[in-house]
Amino acid sequence: MRSKVAAAIALSVAMAATTASAGVVISEDVVVSNQAGTRTIKQTVMTQGNKQKVLGGDRIFITDLDAPKMSVLNPVRKTYGEIPLPPGGAVLAMMAKDGNSVELKKQAGTHKVAGYDCQDYAGTQRLGHYNLEVTECVASAAPGAKEFVEYMKAMGARLKGTPIEPKGEVPDGIPVSSTVSVALIPFPIPKNFPPNLTAQVKAEQAKAKPEVKRTTVTKIEVKEIAADEFLVPADYPKPPPKPAIKSGLPGGPNPPIPAPEQPIPPKDRPPSPPAAH
Predict the structure, then answer these.
(1) Which among 61, 95, 120, 195 could disulfide-bond with 109, CB atoms 3.0 to 4.6 Å apart, if both were Cys?
(2) Which domains does the chain have, with CATH numbers?
């Protein structure tokens, strides 16, 4: 009898250890609609511990909260760049428009998505001249929900003190469906503006349509993810160091001042990662 009890305890411990070290792999359909049209992306989000990898479209994002940094890979050219966390410049703006800092509050509605029961959350935020609206249906009983929430809380801690610091509590679960709408708030037109130009500006602002990103989970798996999934492949050349700009201040030699971070060119700019669901 004792041997059977001991075996059962050992099995339970082994299963718990396996679950604790397991990662979460989420398969998603992402539909982005804006003035340029509509496109659909098959996306995979892999999360394990303090690391996350997002594959979809023409870019791969690898986030390491312990480093802390984000690597953006171009699998076609086999090149990559590194962005510190918290980010700045264009990357920070992209993450902000993805709704990372919007405070989400529990709503009355419940649904079932991909076989998972989920609870509605919603929130809005004004960001400069943009208005963000975010809705999510969060599945707290989905496999890997605990590990996913722990990662999101760790990411929030890294973003603390920045314009994209998450507000409020992290929803307790995995968003199995979400919608992020970014609408332009019309700029005020000066009273003394020429009537013909006023009409043109109003016409252009009336044409502006919100960018809407809808994400739907199709599958969730809990399994151990190989450590090298979160590493930049060896055949991707390391990016060259940024050039230093000499200060040129009077009074003798001065230490170099690092060049400012360069934003990703528009033609290479990827869609925002859903790190933040």
Answers:
(1) 120
(2) 16-248+263-276 (2.50.20.10)
